[in-house]
Please model this.
Amino acid sequence: MGLKDLIRQPKAEPASESNDEAALAFISGAPISANPEPKRKRKKAPTFVRTTFSLSKDFNRQIDKISLLPRTFRASRSDVVRAGIMALQNLEKSELLMLLESASKAEPLTELTQDE
Model:
C-alpha cells in the first residue's frame, strides 16, 4: 500500500438536469415577500458622555474624600458629582444662584478641609 492509495477518487457528478430540478424546487419553496418583517428594536442602555473639566487640587482631594465615605457600597468620583447635582437641583433658585456666584470666585473649600 503506497501513498497513491490515500488520494480520493473523483466522484461522478450527477446529471445537470437533476441539479437544475433540485435548484428550482429549492427556489420555489422560498417565501416571497417584498417587505421583510421588521426587526424588533432593542432598547439601548443609557450612554454616558465623557466630560473633562478643571478643578483645583483641593476640590479634587475633596471629591476623593467624599467618594471614600460610604462603607457599605462603592461610590465613584462620578457618583459624587451626580449626588452634588441632585442636591443642587433641590435648592431654591436664589440659593442656587448664590452658591454658583461664590463658586465662580474659585475660593477653596474650607468647611470640608477642616475634617483632615
About this structure: Residues 57-103 form one domain. The chain has a mean pLDDT of 80. The two ends are 89 Å apart (CA to CA).
